[in-house]
Structures
1.
Amino acid sequence: MVLDSLAKSLREALKRINRSSLVDDRLVEEIVKEMQRALLMADVDVALTLEITNNVEKRAKEEPVPKNSNPRNHLIKIIYEELLKILGKPREFHVKPATIMLVGLYGQGKTTSAGKIAKFYMKHGYKVVLIAADTQRLGAYEQLEQVASSVGASFFGIYGEKDSRKVVREGIEKFKEWDVKIVDTSGRNAIDESLAREISEINEISRPSEVILILDASTGQQAGKQAKAFNDSVKITGVFITKLDGTAKGGGALSAVASTGAPILFIGTGEHMDDMEYFNPARFLSRLLGMGDFETLMAAAKDFQKGMDEESLEKMVQGKFTLKEMYDVWDQMNKPGLFKKLFESLPMAPGGIRKDIDDKFFDESENKLKKYKVIMDSMTYYEMENPEEIKGSRVERIANGSGYTTSDVKELLRDYKRVKDMVKNIKGNRKILSLMKKQFKSGNLPEDLANMPQ
Ligand SMILES: Nc1nc2c(ncn2[C@@H]2O[C@H](COP(=O)(O)OP(=O)(O)O)[C@@H](O)[C@H]2O)c(=O)[nH]1
Ligand SMILES: [Mg+2]
């Protein structure tokens, strides 16, 4: 998960609070020390770390415990509230037709994020075009073209053209009927006058409704300086922090950007086109701490329902369960990390954080799903509908096409068989089936989940 070691230390601290028989000054001081260490390790600014932890200490020692709470929960609440201050305020974001300009230095993830944002809008049913305004870098045209085709978005670029302004002018004109236009601009090694001029001119030409700054999380605290500098040349409406999956320094980037007042809009959590999340500070923190998050649960449940309404559930259980059906189900599960979300958002078990959730399990399952999807993308429609026919040379062809090995393909087929058998069992169990149906109908997942037979 994102910010692994920070999450681990903070969760440990909360667990300790829950385990302790007494909340006294000594415990508070120890917890505060642990928080300091964890925040500094995550690259959060020293002054900010001290401010937050001093507040925790002061409040924990001085504030009376409210009647409806207890000393443990009160301390946890204070920690949560103080940590939340680091992450800034959420920005309201409406999914509607837009022209989006992406800016940022070399290698921050602009082109990749352009694809993710395109996919995000396309999931909402919008027609999207990606415009290749990076005319600086060799291969930028092809890279964006490839990204566009991988998500199924339209693409506009003028091969070999050096004037990015011309590309943007023509692209915006040609695709004016498209709902969402995403302009992938060129970067530099550092912000210089030529970059500032280029993006401010493209800003004039495209008149974007969103100007999103793409920042690599591993930049750490320096991300704050970059955000300020970019904001000086063109008004940033939101920041997309990429590669949060791969760095322990993410805390520095998040807190530094938040402190500039530029709203963090999205975070990137992987190289795959689905690895993007809308950034909501409260939700992000709850997940980091492993606390129950009802909001996330409901959003996840709705997402799941959209793809798995009663009709498709019926189809899945009653009809032929082919790889095609399994692909659809997995596609839902994978968008974005649904399984994990469902589990992480379950309310805290009485007496503490859920101990039974193992991040490794979710990471492994998610990686497996990703792999399986790539493999299935290399199958023909006929093979998806008739998995039992996948043998011998077909296995080899699929392996070659997907870049995986034949044993990966066989593993997928074995797992498919297992799921198929499971579905067969459900078919035979009227009680479970009717419960599942009820659950999808009501949308009231938490309660119904609790009533599911174990
Ligand atoms: N792990 C990870 N890698 C990412 C993420 N976003 C982008 N990348 C990788 O970062 C590298 C640079 O990305 P690119 O989009 O070409 O950057 P650009 O120069 O700003 O357009 C590529 O290898 C991407 O796969 C992310 O959220 N997580
Ligand atoms: Mg690029």
2.
Amino acid sequence: MSDFDADVIVIGGGIIGVAVAAALKGQSVLVIDSGSPKFGTSSANAGHIVVSHATPFAAPGMVGQGLRSLLARDGAFALSPRLPLSGLTWLARFTAHCTARNAETLTPGILSLLRNSATGVRTLGLPTSTYPIWEVFTGNGSRNRAAHEVEHMRGLGIDAAHIDPNLVSEAEPLLLPRNMSVVELREDFGVDPQLLWETLKATNEQATFLNNRTVTAIDPSADGVRVHLSSTTLNAPKLVIAAGAWTPDLTKLLGVSLPIIAAKGYSITVPDLATNVQHPMIFADEKFVVNPLDNSLRISARFELTRASDRTIDPKRIKHTYAQAKRVVTLPPLPDSLDSLSPWTGVRPASADGAPYIGPLKGMPNVVVAAGHGMTGTSSAMGTADLVARYIRGGSISTSELALTPNR
Ligand SMILES: Cc1cc2nc3c(=O)[nH]c(=O)nc-3n(C[C@H](O)[C@H](O)[C@H](O)COP(=O)(O)OP(=O)(O)OC[C@H]3O[C@@H](n4cnc5c(N)ncnc54)[C@H](O)[C@@H]3O)c2cc1C
């Protein structure tokens, strides 16, 4: 194969795709997106950079939590009527992966992605939250659960501390008193995810972005990869597939089935707040998160398994999320027009064992996958991109990073 169109082609222009393009600075990169990347899930998410989320989503206790949520009215975890049949296979695989062994195998690799990313984001010089993220436990047993969380974090080597209850209301006067226990996750912080995406997109001056292009076929060979679009064919020595929840559609073109399902989440953004909360926060019991952005407050919630094309916005969900938030945070009354809250949905690419798939596909050394980041794609984008760049340029890969291979 000769006359390459670029050094690397990336399919998918979400946060992972643009982070990969940025990490390949010095090389020419073509980023192809079937829509405009706004269609993906990277633009209006919660914007938490969470080193604390190093344990894979498939971990002991998750099946019980999921079942309780399914049985509860308005639970955070839900199955959409639009869920394709493959969703049931995914659920069975996820259930089988909720073991201590899965957590032990995958945590070190995830932690290294998250730490590298957090350091990377800090070096970009973007505005970040003034304070670290707080994880808030409410109701019965909140103190014990918070203590357990601190112990768990410290066991992983992550900096976390229990906040003196007397200091909580002083530091966050907008929190409503509800027998709260707060853990400060000291390595975690908030960013504006759209700003992070734009900054990474602008990093590599040799990156070109092609929107609204549909990939119809992929031909890998020993010296490169041909990517067929409806109107043309492009080729490069290396291809990166970073198409979020749509990644299985692309790997299917190569005969590879990757267990990634779309997990829809909602965000709303309360505008024009004269007084805002100070810390980005995770409400462990009410199952939503907040991030103060300028004079607005982003509130995000819900994990609904569905199909990747499902971007419907259910007004009931918006109202429920707002009501949940109002139970613990002082907010203005729900506005008459929900549009003023900029309701948004995104589909998290959720892998069946709760960790992203990063690395070349078996027997196809020129095709590298970077997908399946679930709830932490923004948090782990720069670490993922650094790992992808090492696969492409032939750098060293640690054992914990090898555990994230898509061939596991
Ligand atoms: C409500 C909500 C809150 C969240 N909060 C956080 C948070 O606080 N912190 C965090 O770390 N993560 C968070 N996430 C998760 C995070 O948003 C995702 O993990 C991340 O955006 C995934 O990025 P991606 O680049 O893999 O996928 P996407 O952003 O979905 O990008 C994939 C791109 O691929 C394109 N594409 C699809 N098919 C094709 C094709 N055939 N050809 C070419 N292009 C294609 C799509 O158009 C899209 O632009 C949240 C998600 C949601 C929904």
3.
Amino acid sequence: MLRDSGKDWEVVELDLDPPKSGELLVRWVASGLCHSDEHLRHGDIVPRFPIVGGHEGAGIVEEVGPGATGWEVGDHVVASFLPACGHCRWCAQGRSNICDLGATILEGCMTDGSFRFHENGDDIGAMCMLGTFSQYGVISEHSAVKVDKEIDLTKACLVGCGVATGWGTAVYSAPTEVGDTIVIFGIGGIGINAVQGASHAGATNVIAVDPLANKREMAEQMGATHAVASAEEAMELSQQLTNGVGADKALVTVDVVTPEVVENAVNVIRKGGRVVLTALADPAKATVQVSGSVLTLFEKEIVGRLFGGGNPHLEIPKLLGLYQAGRLKLDELITKTYTLDELNTGYNDLIEGKNVRGVLIHEH
Ligand SMILES: NC(=O)c1ccc[n+]([C@@H]2O[C@H](COP(=O)([O-])OP(=O)(O)OC[C@H]3O[C@@H](n4cnc5c(N)ncnc54)[C@H](O)[C@@H]3O)[C@@H](O)[C@H]2O)c1
Ligand SMILES: [Zn+2]
Ligand SMILES: [Zn+2]
């Protein structure tokens, strides 16, 4: 868990309540190391502290709380970092990624305001109401998606955040249309899956932008038609490939959003094009600083999206089905695996640009 911004992840013993109504006790098997947890450590985004990290997890149900219907001990689960109740205004509209239950993902408490982790009687939160860096967690059934037991959970965990978010950014939020030219800024765990999504959805040109050579190489292996190191190169290339029209859509999946990357994304798209902001930064910072008149005169759009704009309970099984059919790559996304004691090393590797995705494999 993390006690404060700027501190390292600490391995501690915590007390865990049994599952209450509509909840499940899950033994986490694996958890992806997404940059969103790093935002909490770095201080870009400040949650309620202390908090158990991890929101990209897969595990096995060990106990079913009262009223959690349709669940059995032994069920395999991929966690959705956004809970979906199924009947609020947003869920009813098919936008369950913005379900009202998401309100407490940074408080780390359950919907009724109570906590499941405790240390010497003090309440400890859980990132996205999950806390998948812990070996065990009690979560709402609204955060749990039952998956096929045949699927390796050490790979399946990635679909809980990075894969679904990147894929959805390209496929639903851009959306990529057949023949499009798509520019993707930032090829980490999210951006690489935007590459897979854009390629799958029929883009003619998928231009990956990342200053790191290992990321560009990976992008080319995962479906990018071009990979460049800078926004200037992306600009030149998109102009050249589209006869001076510009890219159809630009996706921002960098680690920390800056006004520069947003401006570059707005400049690289054609009139009537769209920029999708999936990456995050300090919410107090004004990271969109562009000419409003350019947006008006060229009818350009900038939109923000959570979970790639998809519905977690629909997307997670769908993406795993694509994986089982050999149409979506998961194994290739994992650069390195870590044990719990190596969590800080895993995040240092992320910051140093070594990993497309690191995965924590729990020992029990
Ligand atoms: N909206 C959502 O639902 C959602 C979900 C998950 C993660 N996120 C956010 O998405 C972002 C990406 O997460 P990640 O885990 O993939 O991060 P990551 O650290 O794995 O990858 C970021 C990549 O961006 C590259 N980069 C940095 N500046 C760049 C620039 N100016 N141009 C091009 N590339 C640049 C880095 O070299 C790195 O390869 C984070 O901000 C994370 O919090 C959002
Ligand atoms: Zn994430
Ligand atoms: Zn809802």
